[in-house]
Amino acid sequence: MTMTELEAGLNLDDEAFASKFGFQKPTPNDTIVTHCWKGGRAVKACNAFEEKGFKNVKCYSGSFRGLGEKRRKSSS
Asked: I need a labelling partner for 10 at 20 to 30 A (CA). Which of 37, 41, 43, 75 fits?
């Protein structure tokens, strides 16, 4: 989901969130792990969750691109 969708979605009530995204809205005590391709949006998403009172937010800032590079190097 895009940052715009995330920020708007966090402002929706539970029923509207589930209707829009097709899954239950997380609660402030759920563990949330954000990620993206390069890492920058993951940090922004983490901040958006924390600003809305989520307590267990983790940011995978290493990115999927970085993970792929690590895997290629380790299999060489």
From this structure: 37
Here the CATH number for the domain that contains residue 52 is 3.40.250.10
Largest CA distance in the chain: 49
pLDDT tens digits, residue range 18-57?
999 999 999 999 999 998 877 788 889 999 999 999 999 9
Q: Distance (Å, rounded) from C-alpha 67 to C-alpha 28?
A: 28
Please say whether the dihedral angle defined by the alpha carbons of residues 22, 16, 13 and 46, taken in this order, is positive or negative.
Answer: positive
Amino acid letter for position 40: G
- For 52, the domain range is 3-74
Alpha helices in the chain (DSSP H): 3-10, 14-21, 40-51, 63-74
Residue 34: strand pairing partners? 59
